[in-house]
Write a structure and sequence with these properties.
Number of domains: 2
Number of helices: 13
Largest sheet: 9 strands, antiparallel
Structural class: alpha+beta
Number of strands: 12
Helix content: 25-40%
Radius of gyration: 19 Å
Shape: globular
Order of helices and strands: HHEEEEHHHHHHEHEHHEHEEEEEH
Strand content: 15-25%
């Protein structure tokens, strides 16, 4: 594991060399958009540049930004409002307070990161994805059992909340989330190599998922560096009108994180699942699964974006977020 005080003085190249040192199977794909040009490099053992190849990676929680994009599309189509409460779309008991859609996508709903379900015991013992086998019916029952206080809540990152967004999207579009998201990715965004994971059969060391798992919207997408660079370019250009809605700031969160504070990466504000760093003037999100981690950030003013996709555990040496943040700092100085 890295030492933060040492890492903050390292260059991007030094970070890459350290992270890939003596690791035969490492594949870290790093993408850059600058001056209207897009490029990528694949790094292997000891920082060696490998032939260009678009490997598949789990992108973890960056999935949430795709949920947000599809949600913004639904808003623009008049199918839903960000200030609507979830009970307008889900069959739930009458209560004084349910979160709004805006609460969910800003992680200020009052929901915990997750709620314990008995499936988690077996998943842990077998080394599986914690959320494997937790059904949509079970999620709906859990939502119905939670009695939130009628007040505003501070930022608290919630995978549960994004699973709820998945149910809402299904209700709005009348379609299963996996089919809905896959069609959106490939037909509208033209991201032909990005899809909802079908489990470990999709690739080595990928998380297992069942088709109807409730937590899929929180982090089950698989993608490539080429597709993710295209996605970053869409964000920079706001290629679709509704993407601009996702970039509008909804709430001030001013969340402090020891690691991010050390590398001067900030969680100041949030839009529809995009975190905004006011100091660096970037939108960003990251993701992590058991064996993969990722980071994407973009600067609309200077038209710069970076994408880092790694097939290393988030706890293994220097994670993608720190790599991507350092790379962006070097690009903005050039």
């Amino acid at each position: 594991m890295y030492q933060l005080d040492q890492v903050k003085h390292m260059s991007f190249k030094q970070m890459i060399k350290y992270t890939t040192k003596k690791s035969d199977d490492v594949r870290i794909s790093v993408g850059i958009i600058k001056d209207g040009k897009s490029s990528y490099t694949v790094y292997g053992k000891d920082g060696k540049m490998l032939p260009q190849k678009e490997y598949l990676y789990e992108i973890g929680s960056i999935t949430k930004t795709f949920d947000g994009a599809l949600l913004c599309k639904a808003v623009k189509e008049g199918k839903i409002g960000l200030e609507d409460t979830i009970d307008q779309y889900l069959q739930l008991s009458k209560r004084e307070r349910y979160p709004t859609i805006a609460d969910l996508v800003t992680h200020t709903s009052g929901y915990k990161s997750y709620y314990f379900e008995r499936e988690m015991i077996g998943n842990h013992l077998r080394g599986k994805n914690d959320f494997y086998g937790i059904s949509k019916d079970k999620l709906l029952k859990r939502i119905d059992s939670i009695n939130l206080e009628n007040k505003g809540y501070a930022f608290s990152y919630s995978n549960f909340g994004m699973a709820v967004v998945g149910l809402v999207l299904e209700s709005v579009y009348g379609q299963d989330y996996t089919k809905l998201m896959d069609r959106y990715l490939q037909s509208e965004l033209n991201m032909k190599n990005t899809f909802v994971s079908g489990g470990s059969n999709c690739g080595k060391d990928f998380w297992d998922w069942k088709k109807q798992d409730a937590y899929i919207p929180a982090g089950a997408l698989i993608s490539t560096i080429g597709d993710m660079l295209d996605y970053a370019q869409m964000q920079l250009e706001e290629k679709f009108e509704y993407l601009e809605l996702g970039h509008r700031i909804i709430k001030e969160i001013n969340y402090s994180n020891v690691i991010y504070d050390k590398i001067e990466l900030h969680l100041d504000q949030i839009g529809v699942n995009w975190i905004y760093d006011k100091t660096n003037q970037i939108y960003w999100h990251n993701g992590g699964t058991k064996n993969y981690n990722s980071h994407l950030c973009f600067d609309p003013k200077n038209k710069i974006a970076t994408v880092v996709l790694s097939n290393q555990k988030p706890t293994n040496k220097i994670p993608a977020t720190i790599l991507g943040n350092q790379l962006f700092k070097e690009l903005i100085k050039d």
